[in-house]
Amino acid sequence: MLNFIPRPSQEQILRYRGGRLGIAAVPGAGKTQILSALAAQIIASGSLGDDQEVLIVTLVNSAVDNFEARVKRFFDNPLQALYKYRVRTLHGLAHDIVREKPGHVGLDERFAIIDEREADFIRREAVKAWLSVHAESLDDYLDPNMDEHKRDWVRRDQLPEMISNLALAFIRSSKDRRLTPAKLRLLLDRQPAPLPLAELGLEIYADYQRALAYRAAVDFDDLIRLALDILEMDEEYLERVRYRFPFILEDEAQDSSRLQQDILGLLSGARPERILSVGEVADEGGNWVRVGDPNQAIFETFTTASPELLRAFIAQNPSVDMPESGRSQQSVIDLANYLIDWVMNEHPIEEARSALAPPYIEPVPPDDPQPNPPNDRAAIHFISKRLTAEEETKAVVDSLSKWLPKNQDATVAVLVPRNTRGVEVINALKAKNIEYVEFLSSTSNTRAAAGALSNLIAYLADPQSAPKLAKAYQVWRRDWKDVKERQTLIHDTSAWLRKVRNVEDYVNPNLAFARGETLTPAPSRSTPEGLPRGEGDSIAEAVVAEGEEEQVAAELNDFRVHVRRWLESVMLPIDQLVLTLAQDIFTDAADLALAHKLALVLHKAADDHKEWRLPELTAELAVIAKNERRFIGFSADDSGFDPDQHKGKVVVTTMHKAKGLEWDRVYLMSVNNYDFPSNQPNDRFISEKWFLRNSLNLEAEALAQLNAATSSSEYDWYDEGAATLAARLDYVKERLRLFFVGITRAKKELIVTWNTGRQGDATPGLALSALMGWWEE
Amino acid sequence: MTDSLPPPGISLSPAQRQIIEAPLNSKLFVLGPAGTGKTSAGVERMRHLLAQGVPGESILMLAAQRSVQEPYLDLLYSPERAAGGEVTSATLGGGLARRVCDLFWPVAGEAAGFAHPDQPPVFLSLETSQYYMAHIVRPLLDEGYFESVTMDRNRLYSQILDNLNKAAIVGFHYTEIASRLDAAYFGDPAQRRVYADAQDCAVRFREYCLQNNLIDFSLQLEIFTNILWPLDTVRGYLTRTYRHLIYDNVEEDSPRAHDIIRAWLPEFESALLIYDESGGYRHFLGSDPLTGQALNELCEEQIVLSDSFVMSETIASLASSLEQIILPYPSVPEPEAAGAEGVGIIAARFYPELLDAVVAQTKSLVEESGVLPADIVIISPFLSDALRFSVMNRLEAAGIPTRSHRPSRTLRDEPASQALLTLAALAHPEWNIHPPRFDVAYALMQSVAGLDLVRAQLLAEIVYRPRELRLSTFDEIDPGVQERITFVIGNRYAMLRDWLLAYREGEDLPFDHFLRKLFGEVLSQPGFGFHTDFDAVRVASSLVESVRHFRQSLEATVLFQTTDSRFPHLGKEYTQMLQDGVIAASYVEGWRSQNKDAVLVAPAHTFLMMNRPVTAQFWLDVGSSGWHQRLAQPLTHPYVLTREWEPGRIWTDADEVETSRQALRRVISGLLHRCRERVYLCMAELGESGFEQRGDLLRAFQRVLQTSGDTGG
Q1: Which of B421, B502, A617 is nearest to A625 (CA)?
Q2: Of the candidates B409, B338, B343, B267, which has an alpha carbon nearest to the alpha carbon of residue B681?
Q3: B187, A503: Cβ pair inside 8 Å?
Q4: What is the predicted pLDDT for the residue at A612?
Q5: Residue B713's pLDDT is what?
Q6: In total, how many domains does chain B have?
Q7: Residues B462 and B529 both lie in one domain
Q8: Who has the most CB within 10 Å: A363, A443, B39, B696?
Q9: Model confidence at B386: pLDDT above 80
Q10: Residue B34: pLDDT band with limits 50, 70, 90
Q11: In angstroms, rounded to a whole number, what is the distance separating the alpha carbons of residues B409 and A576?
Q12: Which residues are CB-contacts of A364 (< 8 A; sequence separation ≥ 6)?
């Protein structure tokens, strides 16, 4: 095969001919590359029939594009691979299945998929409705020592957010167990003792599903659930899909939930109950290769995914390790490997020791085209000093300001555990005039295109506003943003527009003339036709640079033609309005495609919310621009994030979002026992709210009640508080993996810091202390 | 009488001549695929009949759908035709059934069990049926009906209606809907309840119609076929009136229609039945080619037309290769290595790019190759509003005339009708509809000539108080602002305001009368928006028409149920139904009269049903599964609710695969038989919504291109 010299473990993988195969890979091992190579090899072998495809399943849309391109690259003539493989996210795959058989699960042809943001909105509405009826029914869970005043405040200010998160977890888990509200109702009715949190969850769940049905929509979790329903219900159809996909290659398998795993298991030809029964070797079943790194199973929001699923799969099937990685220098590798060792052998909490597991990371052989950077012990820094959060930020920013000027060709990232911390870092960077790239909520084309449209429509929603008009002008000229010679013109024209007193006189000067006797003296030569008169004149002239007047006047006249057309189009249906505007402001094909998608999205939004007018629709676009929405199809992470595009600038992001990325230099911040607790006596847990009694984690308790309701075993009976403790353990383990992910982002240099937290009593995270101790030895 | 010669430029084959000049007492069954000159022969036959002195009123021209009748209507309405008796041109289940029901109402009303046979019936349109269905079903939804389905309410209503219609056109009793659907279903038992719910709603709807003298499509057809047709008087009347039958696109009609024709056919003096053997596109609407083809037996002569007047050789060979790949017929020999020369490929990564390329190619066809715009179609299995808008916009910008199967906006979305409805809400405070300020600003912008949006907003912000629906006077405004808005505009606003306030004081008019008055006394006057805007005038008159129809059908029921509090103000009811999309299918009337020499942008099925050939076809979304996959309708089933479906058989995935292949083969064959020279496959890597698409059609093409590439070396 072309352009590919496999490493030893990769060679082993390429010997795969069929059946199950589990692969545990380390960070930077080249999972995409090997899966692409494997797909190419299968295609090249000619074993696929007409209408058969290798199915590649991955996690995010950006990976889809990546795979598409890479598989093709293995062929002299890309046509040889045409329609021989299909890359899908799991949600995309589920969507394909449900699309093909919607009637089986009571869906109409035109069912819609509600994205996370709309789902969030619906859930919050349901929570609001629940609270308005049950305002005081949670009182039993509140800390009895709170006074009534504080209780009121908690009910009003804290409960909605907390219950909304609880509901998210509850609904997701119910769907993961394939329980409809009706089925869950039956189960709860059979309980010998009341399960109040499960009742709460069910009520909100039922309300939520009704709201979805009313919108003729399903959410992302429904897609998975319904796809599995269809496959189980219709054997003939299942056979057909199995024939279509004789090989399944799955990437990022550590992030699959049980249902997602069941779907692939079923498609690859195993009965679902055969997967994962402990101690059994699942030798039957078809061709399914799962690649992942259980050590990198990290989650930002509630998920039903678990790395144990992949671990079990690897244990029960033929498996190969992929330990070689050319990413990091030896010292970083040593640190990461020691972290695995320490967790497995020395973590004070016995149950947490399974958080990380081998394979250990190995450097690539010396002749590898992607060799490890040279070993440099001095490039690892642990800042053990006690620092407040502000001091920590300052130390990092100071370090950056010294380092950056000498390293304009290198990449650097500051990784934080939470968004809020990232914002603080960014503010500090701003204050020091250090160039940064904010990748807290991801950046993408969606964002820029939606932002531009949103600014334009914001003006149309408020057409008298001169500042918005000026902003609209900048959007119109967004292609000139990087053209130096145009900067003065854009600046002056915007400034002029911002100061227009009566926008209508600029937009529609003919009507101004119609006023007849109120006309002030004729405008000066330099003012465009119909400039506002009177006081407007002097302001206008003042903001325009000398010698520029004619250009600005011409520019204003040009722009006016467009503004007038836009103003006339406001009465069009929103999709047509968006398309009309997009034709005027976008030239890039990707932008236009996004505009088309946005038009469809807004059309649906306007249909669902008949009372919405331009301001609400603008707000919706602004939300999309902020990237709080995820689409199926074009998505937030469409273009992916490429650190190499930002050399010489500081990328600020969370450790979660950094997964899959690498930088020359990496700062890990806030590695204290608040963000990285270890279940020690002094540790606090974010999900245990101070206003609840007994440090209960209500979300975990609600899930435990759900579990009790669905289990037939008497040992699963609900025991208050046990779930809270179990949730601590899960959190401790996830944080250990998060730390591991953070460390393995560094290619050459790594700096780890911590702070004393909001209350000033936080200590270094236990794992950090252990690493520091070992490093100094 | 007209000349019996066809218009110049039409040359007829001997087979066609045989059809046209057949004796006046002959019954012919003509069959052949599309593009073999069947309809042309039919039209010329009609010309011939008239030229031979057959009275127009004794000719019955039937077709399953109005669009198929167009070539016949073109002849009947052509200016050179001398005055004379009118030919009846109708659909059997629609126009003819309705006419007969109307004529024989006293008999029908009683026999069908209507509560008030002494009162005239009200025929419901699709929208008004939907409206009544909504009234019946909505309260049941709150009781938990249809809980396990996820679908838009309006689609739910229409599928229940569809079930009733299926019962009527297939000819089973409407109480058997659920049992038939249920017997074919496997899977989640919870799902079965929806069939029972749908059945219950259908029964309630039928009872409501009988109670209130309402006749929807299903009832109209059942009354005609089950009650009136068997009566000697009715039958005698029909057979006396119509002596000659021309029945085109027999394959697209329903089994019930075929039943009637089967019984009626011996009574005609002459008959010409035209059957497209590759047709049956309206399957989802109940067309049944098999029962149609069986009419063959009753005709004396069968004439097969097989030579295409349309397809070039390359297209013909493409058609046969594709057909064989999609669904091989064993009897057909393996086709020669396919002709891919007739295929052009337009590919792009993103959708809008693709549309640019399509339009550029269209432009070059028109301007460089001299293809008439009317000879080009741009089709897609589905056409979202956004897509249609995008294509038509680009074509217009390129100076190419364009038309579509329907206007780009529903009546509800037309700015002019929005303005009228906003003003109506202002004139009727008792409706308790409080338009937001935005709507009022837009209405002012539309209504007052010369008013731009900036000033309209300014004005609305100052004069309009949504909560009290108050409109203050222009004089009350601050003089500075008056000046900004200008006095010219101010005066016009004042006139409009005075009119609205005067109306509030006066007597409440029927809603359509109100609209007419508002239009006539204010909006059409000089200085107002509709004075010179002819599009707006067309919209306004369509709105009035739609309201009038709605009122007439509604008043009929209120007549009997004056105490029915479920029907509040008619105008308010109409406005809300329009907003909710219950009356969604209303469009501006008369858009059909637009320029016909234009590029057609339409869904593939619509183009097929227009039944006319073109030179070049652009197929958008070649990768879409919409070309072959049937619409998923949880409450109904187009294949199970047919005559052929064996009772009790379960609908399986194999059936699904088989029917979707047949459907794809039919559509592709139909399209290519209507294509003279070239098909452009238009493919975007990411479809409209950003999904990658890879349906069966694309795969079939890939194989055609591959084989042709292989043989070409």
Answers
A1: A617
A2: B343
A3: no
A4: 86
A5: 33
A6: 4
A7: yes
A8: B39
A9: no
A10: confident
A11: 10
A12: A7, A324, A325, A326, A370, A371, A372
Mean per-residue pLDDT, A202-227: 92
Task: Report the CATH number that the domain containing residue B21 is assigned in CATH.
Answer: 3.40.50.300
3-state secondary structure A420-470: HHHHHHHHHHHHCCCCEEEECCCCCHHHHHHHHHHHHHHHHHCCCCHHHHH
B235 and B360 part of one domain? no
The H or E element that residue B376 is part of is: strand B376-380
Specify whether the CB–CB gap between B49 and B324 falls below 8 A.
no
Residue B642 maps to a domain: yes
Structural domain boundaries, residue B30: 14-100+231-304
Q: Where are the alpha helices (DSSP H) in A45-89?
A: 61-73
B428 pLDDT above the threshold of 50 = yes
Query: Could you report the per-residue pLDDT of A3-12, keeping only the tens digit for each?
Result: 678 898 999 9
Is residue B335 in some structural domain?
A: no
Q: What pLDDT, on a 0 to 100 scale, did the predictor assign at position A64? A: 79
- Domain check: are B568 and B462 in the same one? yes
Do B254 and B93 contact (CB within 8 A), yes or no? yes
CA-nearest residue to A571 within chain B is B415
The answer to the question of residue B640 being in a domain is yes
Cross-chain residue pair B688–A463, CB shorter than 8 Å:
no
Q: What tokens does A590 get?
A: 């990707």
Q: Is A302 left (phi over 0), alpha (psi -120 to 50) or beta?
A: beta
- Residue B338 belongs to some domain of the structure: no
A614: pLDDT confidence band, cut at 50, 70 and 90? confident
Same domain assignment for residues B79 and B136: no
What number is the average pLDDT over the span B513-519?
A: 93
Together in a domain, B435 and B573: yes
DSSP conformational letter for A22: E
Contacts of B348 in chain A (CB under 8 A): 589
Residue of A nearest to B690 (CA): A633
Range in A173-177, A342-346, B123-127 with the lowest mean pLDDT:
B123-127
* Pick from B665, B609, B589, B577: nearest CA to B135: B577
Interface test mutation site (partner A, options B150, B631, B708, max chain A beta carbons within 10 A)? B150
pLDDT tens, position by position, A686-728: 888 888 998 899 999 999 999 999 887 777 788 899 999 999 9
Residues B564 and B454 in one domain: yes
Which one of B188, B486, B634 has the shortest CB-CB distance to A514? Answer: B486
Other CB atoms within 10 A of residue A539 CB: 17
Question: Residue A276: what pLDDT?
Answer: 41
Token digits for A744?
Answer: 């393995």
Co-location of B454 and B563 in the same domain: yes
Rounded CA-CA distance A343/A351 in Å is 10
Which two three-digit tokens encode residue B155?
Answer: 């689609």
Q: Has residue A534 got a pLDDT over 50?
A: no
Of A462, A515, A592, the CB nearest to B486: A515
CA distance B576 to B412: 10
* Terminal C-alpha separation, chain B: 61
Q: Calculate how close chain B gets to A397, using CA atoms only, in Å.
A: 40
Please return the burial class of B189, using the count of CB atoms within 10 Å of its CB with bins 0-12, 13-18 and 19+. Answer: exposed
Question: What is d(CA B333, CA B682) in angstroms, rounded to the nearest whole number?
Answer: 30
CB nearest A218 (choices: B150, B625, B694):
B150
Residues B573 and B500 in one domain: yes
Give the nearest chain B residue to A230 (CA atoms).
Answer: B187
Q: Which of B255, B284, B304 is the last residue of a domain?
A: B304
In whole angstroms, what is the distance from residue A600 CA to residue A755 CA?
A: 47
- pLDDT range class, residue A514, cuts 50, 70, 90: very low
The pLDDT score that the predictor gives to residue B587 is: 60
Chosen domain end from B213, B244, B259: B213
Q: Letter for the amino acid at A595?
A: A
